[in-house]
Design brief:
By secondary structure, the protein is an alpha+beta fold. Helix content is 16%, strand content 28%. It has two domains: 94 residues, Pseudouridine synthase I, catalytic domain, N-terminal subdomain (Alpha-Beta Plaits), CATH 3.30.70; 94 residues, 2-Layer Sandwich (Alpha-Beta Plaits). Strands 1, 2, 3, 4, 7, 8, 9, 10 and 11 form a nine-stranded mixed beta sheet that branches. Strands 5-6 form a two-stranded antiparallel sheet. Strand 5 and strand 6 form a beta hairpin. It is globular and about 50 Å long. The two termini are 30 Å apart.
Length: 202
């Protein structure tokens, strides 16, 4: 069982091949036989976990496992307390209601890297930073939720999956987690039993 932590840069496909010639995970991860446990949009940045173990992948990515994902969102405008509260109370999206486990306004973290290229800044309109925690991962969910309360997302970074965080990695950096780190973050994962060869059955 192997688990890798990658800080996915902006405009990188969260897959290993792309017919359009865009950058993919293969530009940063060289370990054979690993696949992303969950997705991260092309225009989003931050934490992606990759594993070669199906049970660990399910533990990380399946909504019923209860593993939370934390995001930093830079939104257009000065977000109001009412809008932040609504994100936790819940909003209605085209594919059903959605809510954040928690949401709070914060300053831009000191450790956050610069995006290349940077967002387009409008001189007369400020931006705000939000931290949101979700327990599901529908397509472009954070972006759709902030837009639903009137504050479109300009930049989105996934910072945590469970207790695993991305803050100590530069964009494009990847490292393997130790077995002890995997257990501490996601519990003990049962090993798949190998099928008994037909000739040995009794």
């Amino acid at each position: 069982m192997r688990l890798f932590l990658l800080n996915k840069p902006f405009q990188v496909m969260c897959q290993f091949t792309d017919d359009s010639g865009r950058k993919t995970l293969s530009d940063y991860v060289v370990a054979p036989g690993v696949y992303p446990a969950g997705r991260l949009d092309y225009d989003s940045e931050g934490l992606v976990l990759l594993t070669d173990d199906g049970k660990l992948k399910a533990r990380i990515s399946h909504p019923e496992s209860g593993v939370s994902k934390r995001y930093l969102a830079q939104v257009d405008g000065t977000i109001t307390p009412e809008a932040v509260q609504q994100l936790v109370k819940g909003v209605v999206l085209k594919d059903g209601p959605a809510r954040a486990v928690s949401a709070r306004v914060m300053d831009e973290p000191d450790w956050l890297w610069e995006r290349v290229p940077p967002i387009r800044v409008r001189k007369d309109i400020p931006t705000s930073w939000l931290e949101l925690e979700l327990r599901e991962g529908r397509n472009r969910q954070v972006r759709r939720m902030t837009a639903a309360v009137g504050f479109p997302t300009l930049r989105l970074i996934r910072t945590h999956i469970g207790t695993v965080e991305v803050a100590d990695l530069a964009p494009g950096q990847c490292r393997e987690l130790s077995p002890a780190e995997i257990t501490a973050a996601f519990g003990r994962i049962p090993r798949s039993r190998r099928p008994t060869p037909v000739g040995n059955r009794r």
